[in-house]
Amino acid sequence: MSSAIALSDHALRAHLSAADPDLAALVARVGPCGLRVDADRAPYEALVNAIAHQQLHGRAALAILGRLVALAGGAFPTPEALLALPEADLRACGLSGTKIRAIRGVAQARLDGVIPSRHDAESMTDEDLIARLTTLRGVGRWTVEMLLIFSLGRTDILPVDDFGVREGWRVIKRLDTQPRAAELAAIARDWSPWRSAAAWYLWRAAEAAKARQYVAP
Fold first, then answer.
1. Is the pLDDT of residue 8 over 90?
2. Least buried of 43, 65, 84, 138, by fewest C-beta within 10 Å?
3. pLDDT 10s digits, 35-62
4. C-alpha triplet 191, 29, 175: angle, nearest 5°
5. Per the record, GO CC terms (predicted)?
6. CATH assignment of 7-37+157-210, given 3.40.1190.10, 1.10.1670.40, 3.40.190.10, 1.10.1060.10?
7. Choosing from 120, 156, 162, 176, which is the catalytic residue?
8. CATH architecture group of domain 43-150
9. What is the pLDDT of residues 117-132, one digit of tens each?
């Protein structure tokens, strides 16, 4: 089930708008926050999805995942089913050797209990989940941050290493270059506790600029 993130939209827009005038202009232009959370997606599935999306356009990653689901019989493969799939079949889905090793590692980690169930993950802090899951092959901080935002609905995550987030800030601030991750993290302290929503708005700015539909005031 996909649902709107459980936030007070009026409160988050007011808070972000008060934090920065250019962010306020972006929020006014885009309107209500459309960040969606998949309330049924377990951490294991979220990590496999995030790995598939690494360094790929969203549509390409979704096509790969669609082929993976079809290969597994129409449902997202369980860890056991994923580990049983031949490497040749996984490569035919469009997965590289590196990503195959990573998603197999994720599947084994779920079976070993390293990756928590959704129920257990909901009682863990952001940093505890990041510390545990980044020990896995192919799972960096950004990958876990995507899980935190889009699967667990955590409201105060800003993935400062994300190209689109930094590009969105560059666009609305009319900068020549993107900010460094540490610089943006310091700026974003004022956006707490709605930094996930801020990331969503900055992604919209980056996408609109790429389509030449956004010109910063």
1. no
2. 84
3. 999 988 999 999 999 898 887 777 899 9
4. 65
5. protein-DNA complex
6. 1.10.1670.40
7. 162
8. Orthogonal Bundle (1.10)
9. 999 999 999 999 999 9
